What does this fold into?
Amino acid sequence: MVTIRLARHGAKKRPFYHLTVADSRARRDGRFVERVGYFNPLAHGDEQSLHVNQERIDYWLSVGAQPSARVKQLLKSARKQA
It folds into this structure.
C-alpha cells in the first residue's frame, strides 16, 4: 500500500519534515516515490511552515494512497489556508 507520510530531517532538536509518498513497508526516512511538500514546525517570522503541492496530493489520493493521521491534519489546515 502507498502512504503519504512525514520523513524527518533536520538537526537534533530542530526537526524539519518532508511530506513523502512512499510504500508503507519502507522505512520512515528511507525510500520514497515522490516528495510532495514540507512541514517546518519551528518556523517563525515570515518563514513558511507548511508547503503542499496540492495537485500531486490530489493525484495520489485519487489512485488510493492513504495519508497518515498527522498528514491528514496538515492537509486539512493547508486547505483552510488556500
Q: What stands out?
A: The first helix runs from residue 54 to 62. The beta strands are 2-11, 14-23, 34-39, 50-52, 66-67.
